[in-house]
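ARCHIVE CARD
CATEGORY: sequence design from structure
SOURCE FIELD: tokenized fold
FIELD CONTENT:
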């Protein structure tokens, strides 16, 4: 397949419908893009709801802080953000119900809801159909704007067929779309690129697709991830608008090393690392929206400022990001996105916290602090491998925890 450089894709219209995805502006100056398949006008920055704030209830159970969630969603809608991404498996099954409570207080025509078929454990048609109907119940809606086949690629082509084809579930969802209960049908992708390619060989015109994309993963995806350059280009060629997840690579691109930060500050000292990362993504014409896991008011404020309106990156700014990419891809980071699929660990390791703290030391080019209580959790690992079975990034978690433990024990 022909390779496209970042610059050539930005400067060349690969197919006619990309014209329809150019930015428009609302009265609040926020940038929007139009889905050519449905005509939906979607905010270029959207609300990923996987990382809502949690609190302990009276019994010590972790629950969503509904009061804070309501305020965050109110703030987002007031700023013009109108796309909210959910999944049945997020937040230990509390995600959709918390979003449903918050959005029920708003006019249904003012927002788009996206959720997913997260049938990772039970591939039966009956289980999938039950999950689908429960999403409607928890979200308190009678139609879903954007419905995704969740994490295509994990388990490869065979598992894709078991989850959606052999059991008749995809056929059911296509019928639900015809009935209007699903307005747009698409997918999210992690894992085996053969499963990704299969999506475009099925004779289905997908309304959208979600890929992991950022300036590191564009050509330097690690683990079982696939370079976003390939994924994005194939979507362009097949008239599939792109939803972006992990635009900050699990927060890694929000907190850069001093060396990387200095490179960016020499070009534009007034931009934060988050703004650099999100302006990069918005510079692609076929990106319909960029998901952001906003769990504090300042996240919403910063994102609204970045996209009101979006200012595409200049060539000088792109060159600076290329230098930062080189710095970061040679530093030895762990590609953890803090999705928390690996939790709970049966031995009490907060795996995302350990790997994130490790990345922080790496980014600062510092030796690991042997007294750091978070890093010390690595010693609790018993190599049961349950975490690696759940990790969509296919990180060698156990090996990395063993390495961290070995270093701090020296």
């Amino acid at each position: 397949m022909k390779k496209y450089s970042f610059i050539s894709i930005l400067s060349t219209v690969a197919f006619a419908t990309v014209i329809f995805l150019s930015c428009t502006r609302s009265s609040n100056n926020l940038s929007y893009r139009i889905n050519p398949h449905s005509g939906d006008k979607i905010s270029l920055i959207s609300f990923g709801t996987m990382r809502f704030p949690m609190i302990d209830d009276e019994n010590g159970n972790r629950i969503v802080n509904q009061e804070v969630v309501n305020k965050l969603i109110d703030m987002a809608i007031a700023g013009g953000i109108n796309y909210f991404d959910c999944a049945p498996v997020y937040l230990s099954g509390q995600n959709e119900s918390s979003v449903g409570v918050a959005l029920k207080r708003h006019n249904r025509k003012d927002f788009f809801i996206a959720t997913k078929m997260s049938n990772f454990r039970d591939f039966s048609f009956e289980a999938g159909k039950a999950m689908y109907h429960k999403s409607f119940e928890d979200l308190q809606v009678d139609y879903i704007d954007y419905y995704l086949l969740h994490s295509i690629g994990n388990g490869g082509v065979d598992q894709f067929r078991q989850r959606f084809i052999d059991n008749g579930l995809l056929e059911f969802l296509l019928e639900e779309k015809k009935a209007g209960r699903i307005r747009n049908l698409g997918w999210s992708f992690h894992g085996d690129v053969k499963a990704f390619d299969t999506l475009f060989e099925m004779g289905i015109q997908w309304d959208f697709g979600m890929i992991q994309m950022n300036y590191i993963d564009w050509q330097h995806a690690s683990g079982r991830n696939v370079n976003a350059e390939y994924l994005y280009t194939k979507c362009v060629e097949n008239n599939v608008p792109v939803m972006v997840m992990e635009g900050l690579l699990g927060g890694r691109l929000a907190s850069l090393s001093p060396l990387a930060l200095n490179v960016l500050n020499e070009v534009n000292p007034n931009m934060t690392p988050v703004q650099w990362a999100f302006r990069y993504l918005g510079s692609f014409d076929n990106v319909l929206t960029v998901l952001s896991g906003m769990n504090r008011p300042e996240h919403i404020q910063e994102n609204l400022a970045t996209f009101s309106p979006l200012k595409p990156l200049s060539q000088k700014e792109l060159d600076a990001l290329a230098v930062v990419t080189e710095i970061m891809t040679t530093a030895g980071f762990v590609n953890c996105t803090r999705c928390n699929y690996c939790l709970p660990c049966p031995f009490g390791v907060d795996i995302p916290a350990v790997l994130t703290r490790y990345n922080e030391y790496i980014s600062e080019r510092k030796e690991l602090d042997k007294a750091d209580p978070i890093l010390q959790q690595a010693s609790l690992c018993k190599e049961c491998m349950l975490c690696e079975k759940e990790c969509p990034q296919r990180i060698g978690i156990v090996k990395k925890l063993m390495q961290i433990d070995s270093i701090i024990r020296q």
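CARD ANNOTATION: Confidence is low (pLDDT under 50) at residues 1-27. The chain is about 40% helix and 15% strand.
SHELF: design records, drawer C
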